[in-house]
Design a protein that fits this description.
- The complex is a heterodimer.
- Chain A has helices spanning 40-47, 70-80, 96-106, 112-121, 137-150, 167-184, 195-198; strands at residues 2-11, 14-24, 29-33, 55-60, 63-64, 81-84, 155-159, 187-191, 203-208, 211-212.
- Chain A is an alpha/beta fold.
- Chain A has a single domain (2-212), classed as Rossmann fold (3-Layer(aba) Sandwich).
- Helices cover 61% and strands 12% of the residues of chain B.
- In chain B, a hairpin with a 2-residue loop joins β10 (513-526) and β11.
- A nine-stranded mixed sheet of chain B has the order 12-14-13-15-11-10-16-9-17.
- Classes of the chains: A alpha/beta, B alpha+beta.
- Chain A: This is ATP-binding cassette domain-containing protein.
- Chain A: Keywords: ATP-binding, Nucleotide-binding, Transport.
- Chain A: Pfam families: ABC_tran (PF00005).
């Protein structure tokens, strides 16, 4: 599913990632842990094709991202990747229902039934007509998860998805996320610095000073 | 829904949540399009009318034979020319009054009329021709012209192609209606003539003149400057409207940065996203343009009477009373609106296109004062000011005049934000209380957000001041000049030399008549530039009243003894003449090289003039006896002299014109000419006010995070609202203060550069501080109105909304 080879990323004189390699099979889940500034988010951005590495390669479901232009990388993201951010990143002017359907529609595989089921599972029923600013933080993050899952991508990348939530709400959100990922048979990379959350995934990789330990 | 459709719907959802912003965009673009297309509708209407008039009346495209000095031709001369083989056709052309309305009556002789000549091809069928040339005759005119005739008084035939106000009649009927008594205004010369014809003047010995075809007197060319004036104002209004569009699109795009980042992260490619944004803009621009075009049509309809009056008064051009709708106008209007939107959106669109997908998700500090931007604006303003200085120093021609104007205005507009920042930085040093410090700092931070609206306000204010000063200077100078130039109480014209001589003799016998001064001239040229040399009889009227811009010692004595001439300002500029230079007018007799001893203003006259003594003029050129005279009368004697003249000589309406009537007509033409300019000025000002309102409204929604902490610290919402109002007024006040010197500079460029280059004469700039104060007050009122609504909304903001600023969960 995912093959990362010798990935290096520098910002000026600062090396963020230094020859990182990893692979992830279909349906496999992995936690990426490490202290702040260790390069976790950068690695996730490179895998999603949001940024370009200085060296190394990312092969996503057989597509080498470095060989693709902007439109090709955008298509790979649309078709293969679901993203969940710490800041939710919902479109403020769209309703909950529209936000959930957004990526699936863009990818041309919107399934209204699936979106409704996800809404229900994530406890968003009755909130579909609301706008993001009318929701609590936990609700907004559940909308973001629903949006990522609605498109049924083979790989889900989640960057500190509960970082902005209190512990109880975060736990509930994580339970749902893992449950739905398992049901859909998706691969998952979860960036977190919480050992407790990391422990709930099958595999844990630790980044330290830009290298996998 | 397709992927692209979803993308477009997502982008459009932004406007659904911000209807004010959408309204601002649509209203801004509609206002810009309306003012531009309104002016274009007027211009297109006028040009189409000129084309119609040229097609039907374009007599100047044929050579013509007239009597000496452009006077009438006798039937005997006409017969002599025909007998000699000249293919000429007689034409009568005059103003005819019927039923309280005036018409231009064209009398033609259809059987000899050359093809394509005035009235040619408009007679109709053979049966129509018979009805046209035999009693009771027929008048041909457009339906609207015929409707103005007394009902049933004349046999008529409608021809919608004829321009308004024009009637065509057989020459026999026209002769009767115009009371020509056999005199022919001109003989049109057919383009094809037999060879070996004797010249007309030698043939008859009556001083007939053959005038070659003249394309230059085409109405479209004559009125070009008027339409250029309108177009310039239309364009200025369009630019002010685009400020609104630019401001709104800039804000909307900045607010959508998080959305764009999310969409990019969700797999929308850069080009696809840019394409969708472009498509969205085009949809909105099309809707706004359609509204603007409808509004523009309304504006044109409202301004049409004044424009028509100006064109009729200035150039004798007639415009129909209703606007036509032309495909070209629609297409140009839409194209301008779409192009304007793209230009206004280009920078915002480019920024979003280049936005890195990993850029910070927060909305950029759109309204924050950015030092880098201020420095860039200041540097650009300085560069443009230097360019303007270079143009003022070395620039030549009308193009350089307009470039100077553009450079000055752009420099001032770009300098506004740095100047405001400087003023506020100075104010910060004097702020003592915490609220005052916060107020000044916040005002400085807001400059970025309201700068475009303030720029539009500066532009509108300075143009108002500039054009106001120009019109007022023009009015004052023009009226002074009229008083001086039209010093004689009465101006009379004899229909022919015999009548003129009889009138002169009669006038000189009357006790109320102080002097009868002939008006005569010959047309000459100097270096290819044509001018008229006028001969005047030395009289106190000229010595006391005639205005001179520059004069040598005892100019009138030098003119009287023939050693000096006076030249008009236009002639002096066009021929490069200065005091002390010499003319070589020619004529019979020994060499005569009079010195230029004075230069006088001759506003509004496109041709050059020079003045010498009447004795010298008639001695060197064999002129027929004069037919035009200025008559000096004792105080209050004008009405009875005019009445007695009319009774004695049965004069036509334009043969005796008293000074007061002439001045009244001139003033009326002047006022109506500038009525359109002033109306456009007011509309531009209104658009600038709208720009300010929209900027403040959109800013208000973004300012809660800045205001909520102050509220939490103990300032009431009402006080915060008042402070917001005061801020808007202060920014407008500084802008208005800057607009005064800029407006005076604009007026100077219009009068001393553009006017001189375009028309060859200069008007002294006069200052009207009362007008400036009025406009300053108007700017304050505009700013108050614009700031009142956002301030009111702020004053009523629910506390819950302010509390959300502090909520992490937002």
């Amino acid at each position: 599913m995912l093959d990362v080879q010798n990935l290096t990323k520098r910002y000026g004189a600062l090396t963020i990632l230094d020859g990182v390699s990893l692979t992830l099979g279909a349906g496999e889940t992995m936690a990426l842990v490490g202290e702040s500034g260790s390069g976790k988010s950068t690695l996730l951005h490179l895998i999603a094709g949001l940024d370009a590495p200085d060296a190394g390669r990312v092969v996503l479901d057989g597509r080498e991202l470095a060989a693709l232009d902007d439109a090709g990388r955008a298509a790979a993201r649309r078709d293969l990747v679901g993203l969940v951010f710490q800041q939710f990143n919902l479109v403020q002017s769209l309703t909950v229902a529209q936000n959930i359907a957004l990526q699936a529609r863009l990818a041309g595989r919107h399934d209204a039934g699936r979106a409704a089921r996800l809404s229900e599972r994530l406890g968003l029923t009755g909130l579909e007509a609301r706008f993001p600013e009318q929701l609590s933080g936990g609700q907004q993050q559940r909308v973001a998860i629903a949006r990522a899952l609605a498109a049924a991508p083979p790989l889900l990348l989640a960057d500190e998805p509960t970082g902005n939530l209190d512990e109880a709400t975060g736990d509930r959100v994580m339970d749902l996320l893992l449950e739905l990922v398992a049901e859909a048979g998706m691969a998952l990379i979860l960036v977190t610095h919480s050992p407790r959350l990391a422990g709930r995934l099958r595999r844990v990789e630790r980044l330290h000073a830009g290298r996998l330990e | 829904m397709t992927g692209f459709g979803t993308l477009l719907a997502t982008l459009l959802s932004h406007w659904r949540r911000r209807p004010w912003q959408l309204l601002a965009l649509v209203v801004g673009l509609a206002a810009a399009t309306a003012l531009w297309s309104g002016v274009q509708a007027l211009n297109a209407q006028a040009r189409a009318s000129y084309d119609r008039a040229a097609a039907v009346l374009g007599g100047d495209r044929f050579a013509a034979i007239t009597g000496p000095g452009g006077q009438a031709v006798s039937v005997a001369d006409y017969a002599a020319l025909r007998r000699a083989g000249w293919r000429v056709s007689p034409v009568l052309d005059g103003s005819w009054q019927a039923g309280g309305d005036r018409f231009r009556l064209l009398g033609v002789e259809p059987l000899t009329l050359p093809a394509g000549a005035p009235g040619g091809g408009r007679i109709g069928t053979e049966a129509d021709l018979v009805a046209f040339v035999t009693p009771p005759y027929r008048l041909i005119g457009s339906p609207e012209t015929l409707a103005r005739l007394p009902a049933g008084a004349w046999a008529t035939r409608a021809d919608p192609e004829l321009p308004p106000g024009v009637l065509i009649a057989d020459i026999a009927l026209a002769d009767r209606l115009l009371a020509r008594d056999g005199r022919i205004d001109r003989l049109l010369v057919a383009p094809e003539q037999p060879g070996g014809l004797p010249p007309p003047d030698t043939l008859t010995g009556t001083g007939l003149t053959l005038t070659p075809p003249d394309e230059s007197s085409d109405l479209a060319q004559l009125t070009d400057s008027f339409h250029l004036n309108l177009t310039a104002f239309g364009f200025l209004s369009f630019v002010v409207g685009l400020f609104i569009v630019h401001s709104t699109i800039g804000l909307a795009f900045e607010q959508r940065r998080p959305m764009v980042r999310t969409l990019r992260a969700l797999g929308v490619g850069r080009w696809r996203l840019t394409g969708a944004l472009l498509a969205e803009l085009l949809v909105l621009a099309t809707v706004a343009a359609a509204l603007g075009m409808a509004l523009g049509y309304g504006i044109a309809g409202a301004l049409l009477p004044d424009v028509a009056a100006s064109l009729r008064g200035l150039y004798g051009a007639e415009l129909p009373g209703e606007l036509g709708l032309r495909a070209g106008w629609w297409l140009t209007g839409f194209a301008m609106a779409l192009a304007g939107t793209l230009v206004a959106a280009l920078s915002a669109l480019w920024r979003l296109h280049r936005l890195p997908v990993l850029a910070a998700a927060q909305t950029e500090a759109w309204y924050g004062a950015q030092l880098r931007t201020l420095r860039l604006q200041a540097a650009l303003a300085a560069a443009l000011a230097l360019a303007a200085a270079a143009l003022a120093w070395r620039g030549e021609g009308l193009g350089a005049g307009f470039a100077l104007m553009a450079a000055v205005m752009l420099a001032a507009v770009l300098a506004l934000p740095p100047v405001l920042a400087l003023v506020l930085t100075l104010a910060r040093r004097r702020a003592r209380t915490p609220v005052a410090e916060w107020f000044v700092a916040e005002s400085r931070a807001q400059i970025g957000g309201v700068s475009l609206a303030l720029m539009a306000l500066l532009l509108a204010l300075s143009v108002n001041i500039g054009v106001g000063a120009m019109v007022s200077s023009f009015r004052a100078t023009f009226l002074d000049w009229l008083d001086q130039r039209l010093a004689a109480e009465l101006y009379v014209r004899g229909a022919d030399a015999g009548q003129a001589a009889a009138m002169t003799a009669w006038l000189q016998d009357r006790p109320e008549v102080l002097a009868v001064l002939p008006i005569q001239s010959v047309e000459l040229s100097r270096g290819g530039y044509p001018y008229f040399l006028h001969g005047i009889r030395d009289d106190a009227m000229y010595r006391e009243s005639w205005p001179l811009l520059q004069a040598a010692e005892a100019p009138w004595d030098r003119v009287a003894d023939g050693s000096g001439v006076l030249v008009s300002e236009q002639f002096a500029r066009a021929a490069g003449l200065a005091l002390g230079d010499r003319l070589t007018p020619g004529g019979a007799g020994p060499a005569w090289t009079p010195e230029v001893v004075g230069i006088y203003p001759d506003y509004g006259n496109p041709t050059g003039q020079a003045i010498t003594s009447h004795a010298r003029l008639t001695a060197r050129w064999a002129l027929p006896p004069p037919t035009r005279f200025a008559v000096r009368l004792t105080d209050g004697a004008t009405p009875q002299v005019v009445a007695a003249l009319n009774q004695r000589f049965a004069l036509g309406p334009e043969q005796a014109v008293d000074q007061a009537a002439l001045k009244a007509v001139s003033r009326q033409v002047f006022e109506r000419t500038f009525a359109v300019t002033l109306a456009l000025n007011v509309l531009t000002f209104a658009v600038a006010g709208l720009a300010l309102l929209i900027s403040l409204l959109t800013l208000a929604g973004m300012r809660l995070p800045q205001l909520a902490p102050l509220w939490a610290l103990g300032l009431t919402r009402a006080r915060l609202a008042r402070l917001e109002l005061v801020r808007a007024l202060l920014l407008a006040l500084v802008t208005a203060a800057l607009a005064v010197p800029l407006g005076v500079l604009v007026a100077w460029i219009l009068l001393a550069v553009v006017n001189v280059e375009a028309f060859g004469w200069r008007i002294p700039l006069r200052h009207y501080p009362g007008q400036w104060l009025q406009l300053g007050a108007l700017a304050m009122v505009t700013a108050s109105l614009a700031a009142a609504l956002p301030a009111r909304r702020l004053g009523r903001t629910p506390p819950a909304l302010l509390l959300r600023v502090f909520s992490d969960a937002r």
